């Protein structure tokens, strides 16, 4: 409750899914075309069209725009427009029904296999593998040959060959969902497996099923047309787009319109469905909407209205001036950090403190253009390292500063270290990124650095993999990598949050000593005033993307100016305080209406 009141930003107006779909021009065109074709197909019985099956030999192969036949006639004198609209209705019905069948059976197989695992999973998946072992069109032809030609059998065949596609996709998603805590909780609450599968797992898998359906329905219409083209699908007098194309192929040169017209219809129909399917997928997956799944650019996108001066005279190690960073949500840029300014001298430690979501990490990453773009955008301000504004530098120069003059230590080294390489090699790689050394020299330097950060028995630990080290040792490796190129500034983003208090104290001590010995400027990000009081010379307090207060640590601790700073300080419990801690803190939050 308290946290909510402190952190919840002002509500933003979000665009509805419909508005987002319409904002995607290609998807809107796809929707318009598809809707138009569907309406035509649905209205076929009431449209003033001649009977599509009535032959008229004297009027064979009339060209388009002939009297009474807008699109001409085919080799039996049947009206092409009428056959096209009725044929589209058949193609749509078969394609959509095949998709629904494949989705139902494929998803069921995927759900059961992914949830049950073990023998059930093996048996079901081997069956799916068997289906996939045949080229799909050959398999479809073989199934129709076994069942006999006909539209319904073509529908079954297309559905069967597409079952593996759904089954594999849905199984993958189900496997990752079944091990989530909410599924365990549902099982522990006494729900049976079937209930858990359909009430807990299925709703989470549903968007994937919808996305898969929307992207495969066009494909299935095409496959049905393929079977009909070969004479295995629609049988006379019924026709679909594929059989129209197949029957017209003999007159390809004498009356090309008879095959071109159904060909264009297949193209437009499949294209419109694919465009619409892609649009639906983008709307349903918020990461795609904001571009968060795209490969990030090497440096954060910079869109500053005014350029700050490129140089700053007599500048300390790091100066941040009026920096603003936001995230492009697809609708607008949502600010995460607004107009923040601070300075950091050589050998000084500045604590950046604030609650979760206040913008500490975004600030830290913005300094070297490391916020992933898309969706990140630096919208204003400047960052000066040794007097040089770095965000205006050419890409390669800014990249060259990373790790060399400004290095980072992140919160959880297990996620930043590569799991498949020994830690020594990873430190050596950090050295080699900026120094032209041989591999052996880099490894020797890695060992030296491991010694510096206090890893005992570095000569044997150098070959250890990240999972073979403790949390504290991994964090020391992270610090060794940061020190690899003797940087001027270290940005440590909650380097001790994942560690227990004793290891936390040792890591903080190490950072403190390194700072003293090497004259490093240290920007320490934390949400713990206890840590700030222990190691920081100065502190800047962040709330909702703003720095609300900054100053000497002692002064801020003694006389906090901002109510939020007072509450943060009050949150540090004292040893042996017990219930008195709650009595002391509660009124502060009640007063703030939290
Ligand atoms: N990729 C993203 N897309 C959209 N918004 C984001 C993204 N990453 C972060 N944000 C938003 O930016 C704001 C600041 O996030 P940031 O990670 O800097 O918080 P923090 O203070 O470091 O929190 P914590 O202590 O939990 O790490 C938050 O409101 C967050 O929702």
Please provide a brief summary of the model:
The protein has 24 helices and 11 strands. By secondary structure, the chain is of the alpha/beta class. The strands form 2 sheets. The chain has a 6-stranded mixed beta sheet with strand order 7-8-9-4-10-11, with helices on both faces.
Structure in words:
There is one protein chain. This protein is of the alpha/beta class. The protein is built from 24 helices and 11 strands. It starts with a helix and ends with a helix. Adenosine-5'-triphosphate is lined by residues 292, 327, 336, 354, 356-362, 375, 527. It holds the Pfam family BPD_transp_1. It is a peripheral membrane protein; Multi-pass membrane protein.
Count of DSSP strands: 11
* End-to-end Cα distance: 6 Å
Low-confidence stretches: 1-12
- Strand arrangement in the largest pleated sheet: 7-8-9-4-10-11
Mean of residue pLDDT values: 86
Which distinct ligands sit in these coordinates?
Answer: adenosine-5'-triphosphate
Shape descriptor reads elongated
**What percentage of the residues does DSSP assign to strands (E)?**
5-15%
Largest sheet data? 6 strands, mixed
Number of H/I helices? 24
Please state the structural category: alpha/beta
Radius of gyration: 33 Å
Specify the helix fraction band: 40-55%
Keywords:
cell membrane, five-stranded mixed β-sheet, transmembrane helix, single chain, 24 helices, transport, P-loop_NTPase, binds adenosine-5'-triphosphate, alpha/beta, about 600 residues, elongated, disordered N terminus, six-stranded mixed β-sheet
């Amino acid at each position: 409750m308290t946290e909510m009141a402190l952190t919840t930003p002002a509500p933003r107006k979000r665009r509805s899914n419909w508005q987002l779909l319409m904002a995607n021009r290609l998807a809107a065109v796809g929707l318009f075309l598809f809707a138009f074709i569907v309406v035509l197909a649905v209205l076929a019985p009431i449209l003033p069209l001649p009977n599509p099956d009535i032959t008229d030999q004297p009027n064979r192969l009339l060209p388009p725009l002939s009297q009474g036949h807008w699109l001409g006639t085919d080799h039996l004198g049947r009206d092409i427009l009428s056959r096209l609209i009725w044929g589209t209705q058949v193609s749509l019905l078969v394609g959509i029904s095949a998709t629904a069948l494949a989705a139902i059976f494929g998803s069921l197989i995927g759900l059961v296999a992914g949830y049950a695992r073990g023998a059930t999973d093996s048996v079901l998946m081997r069956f799916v593998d068997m289906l996939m072992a045949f080229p799909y069109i050959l398999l479809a032809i073989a199934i129709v040959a076994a069942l006999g030609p006909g539209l319904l059998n073509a529908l079954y065949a297309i559905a069967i060959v597409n079952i593996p596609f759904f089954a594999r996709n849905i199984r993958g998603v189900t496997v990752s969902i079944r091990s989530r805590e909410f599924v365990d909780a549902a099982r522990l609450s006494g729900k049976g497996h079937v209930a858990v599968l359909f009430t807990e797992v299925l709703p989470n898998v549903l968007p994937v099923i919808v996305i898969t359906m929307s992207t495969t329905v066009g494909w299935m219409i095409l496959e049905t047309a393929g079977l009909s083209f070969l004479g295995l699908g629609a049988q006379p007098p019924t026709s679909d787009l594929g059989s129209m194309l197949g029957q017209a192929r003999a007159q390809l040169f004498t009356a090309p319109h008879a095959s071109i017209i159904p060909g264009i219809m297949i193209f437009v129909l499949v294209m419109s469905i694919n465009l619409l399917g892609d649009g639906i997928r983008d709307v349903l997956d918020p990461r795609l909407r904001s571009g968060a799944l795209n490969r990030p650019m090497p440096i954060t996108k910079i869109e500053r209205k005014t350029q700050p001066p490129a140089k700053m005279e007599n500048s300390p190690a790091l100066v941040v001036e009026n920096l603003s960073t936001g995230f492009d949500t697809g609708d607008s840029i949502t600010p995460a950090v607004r107009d923040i300014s601070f300075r950091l001298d050589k050998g000084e430690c500045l604590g950046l403190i604030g609650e979760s979501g206040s913008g500490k990490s975004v600030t830290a990453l913005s300094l070297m253009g490391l916020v992933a773009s898309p969706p990140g955008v630096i919208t204003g301000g400047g960052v000066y390292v040794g007097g040089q504004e770095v965000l205006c530098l050419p890409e390669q120069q800014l990249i060259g500063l990373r790790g060399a003059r400004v290095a980072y230590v992140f919160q959880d080294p297990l996620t930043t270290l590569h799991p498949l390489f020994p830690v020594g090699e990873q430190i050596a790689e950090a050295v080699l990124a900026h120094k032209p050394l041989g591999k052996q020299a880099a490894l020797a330097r890695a060992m030296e650095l491991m010694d510096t950060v206090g890893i005992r028995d570095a000569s044997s630990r150098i070959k250890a993999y990240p999972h073979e080290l403790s949390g504290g040792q991994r964090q020391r490796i992270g610090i060794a990598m940061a020190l690899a190129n003797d940087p001027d500034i270290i940005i440590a983003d909650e380097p001790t949050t994942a560690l227990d208090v004793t290891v936390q104290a040792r890591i903080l001590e190490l950072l403190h000593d390194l700072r003293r010995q090497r004259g490093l400027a240290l920007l320490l990000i934390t949400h713990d005033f206890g840590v700030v009081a222990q190691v920081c010379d100065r502190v800047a307090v962040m709330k909702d993307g703003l720095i609300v207060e900054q100053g000497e640590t002692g002064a801020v601790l003694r006389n906090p100016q901002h109510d939020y700073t007072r509450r943060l300080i009050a949150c540090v419990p004292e040893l042996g305080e017990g219930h008195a801690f709650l009595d002391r803190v509660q009124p502060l939050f009640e007063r703030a209406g939290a």
